[in-house]
Structure formats: structure tokens, C-alpha cells
Amino acid sequence: MQILSGQPMQSISGSGIPNSHQALLKNQHLLSGRLALLGVASADLLSELPFTGLAMSEHAGVFRSLARHEGWQTCFGYDDPALTEGSCDSIVVFLPKARAELEMRLALARSLASHNAQLILVGEKKEGIAGAIKQLKAVAPQAYKEDSARHCQVWCAQTIEPAPGYRVQEWLTWGTAESAGVSVEVAGLPGIFSQDGLDNGTRMLLETLEEQPVRADRLLDFACGAGVIGAWLQAWQAESKAPVASVDGVDVQSQAVICAKETYRRNGATGAIVASDGLASIDDLWPGIISNPPFHTGVKTDTSMTEQFLQDVKRHLQPGGELRLVANSFLPYESLIKRYIGRVERLREDGRFTVYRAFRGL
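-> C-alpha cells emitted (362 positions)
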């Protein structure tokens, strides 16, 4: 797996060590033997622990930071070959956002477990740790609450039953994405693709690609997710008897990279899929870049990530090349695109989403 580091697509955990990591540090006396940390959100945790082990993150930027810590076996996501069955005596599972992802993470933990290994689940109350206990007890009925600290709960299960044979591919689900009469099959993992179909923003973007195609033989899909845009675009071009563009994809999350590769494989799409935390460290140029970037700002609008993204995009867009993206209409994209890329127009808008098209100056 190629991992590239750059500017983050989204905030990971803010400054300092997350509460869940601090709660583990307070209870590090529970740890013994060969250690595995699953779902690490901040590499600073490794500096605070007096021992080493295996550390996994599904975020490309965090993984890159983990790899700088000597003595640790670092892993990127759920399909890293270093995740060796039966190799760990203490497995710490940090609570993920998606409930279904917790099931997948617990299954991975049990595959790593040696005979008489212990499992420790740590999560914040606001993240839903209370509801996650039922999932924990489904695989470890003997689990008990060890501590409440830093707005978190720490649960421990002694002598969990190992479950070898874990393969992330067994967690794949398949859905269909359809636009302009063209359908593609899309791979899903927890938190990556909705079985309800396309989100409205992506649908609008695809409709503009059908109505007003990007004139380029090679494209980049930034924040590609499960690979919907690239797979659909190539299928539509083939059905329309138009030249088929190669569509490369980049995403920050390991599940997205796994899904995008599976989606491309299933649909016969072409293009390189890589994991990267932003674009700053990617050395390539494209005549066209398309994106449904995941910038969710909540109540307070923060344009700093958008500005960084557009600055990076400019460095990877050939002179005269087109940027096509969809974003929430309330976000101040238009003026920023004009500032960093060039002339910009709105191709479609419905009050909630807007599709922008811009061309980099020559």
C-alpha cells in the first residue's frame, strides 16, 4: 500500500491526546505481554507509553506519524499484512464512529488474540460507548467496566476466545450507484458507502459530468471514497462511445482505498488508487480533477481546510486544466476557487448543493 502524507483532509482529533487515549494511559497497568492498539487517533499516545507493540490506524496521516516511532510495528487499516493472527496478549480497541465498524474492529482484535489474551475497549461517552457494550459482550460476555475517566469508559475482557481467519473482504457489501441510465456496482465497508445509493451531492456531480463532460484523458478523483465517481464516469464514457479517461483516486481512509480498489476491479475501471493525507506530497499533474470533498464545518464555518485543498489542487492541475467539484451551497467555495484556481462558474445548484467548474490559468 502506497501511503503519502500531506495536508489533512479533515481534522482528526484536535490538539493534544484524545480523551480515549488519556483514559488508556490512566489504566496502562492493565496492559501486559505483546500489545496491540487498534484505531489509534494520535501518534502522541505512543510517546507516552513505556513499552512498544503493534499500532494500527485507518487514517493515512496518523499512520504516517505512527511510523516515526521506533520499536513499534505500525499498520495501515484492516488489511495490513503485519496484522498477524494469534500474535498479541493485550488488544486495545478504541471505539470507532460507526457502530458496524466496531464489529469489524472487534473481529480483527479476536484474530490477533493469543491464547488467554485480554481485550480492552475504550471510548468516550459522547461517542456512544454505552451502546457499544452490547457489541463487546456479544463476543466477550465476561467483560466488565474497569474505569470511568476523561469522559470515557474503559472495559476489560479477560481470556477472550481467539477467532482466526479474519479477512476484511468478508466485511464487504455491494450496492448500486445509478445516474443517467448507467449503473455501477459499488463496494462498501462500514462508514464508506450507503446501501441507500448515491448521496445527492455526488448524484448532482455525476449529472453535470454527463451533461458537460470534463475534456481530459486522465483525471484525479480527490477524496474518492468507494470509487463511485471514477467507476461510473468510465462506464458512462464507454456506453456513450466516448474516449474513456483513466481516473486515479486518492483518499485518506483505509476502508475507502480498499473499497475503491474493489469497485474498480468489479467494474473494470482503470486508474491508480492511493492512500494520502491530502495532496501536498503527491508528485503528479492531471488535466482534470473532480471531487466531492468531505469538508463538514458544522455550525462554525472554517475555510482553512478548503483553502489548503484548493492551493494543493492548483499545484496538481495542468495549466488550462479543469476542476469540477460539488459542495454544500453555504460554503464559500466560489470566491476561494476564483482566487486559487481561476475563472469559476456554477453548473448546477439546488439550494443545498452547488457544482462548480473552474479552469486553471495558462
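Residues 236 and 288 are 17 Å apart (CA to CA).
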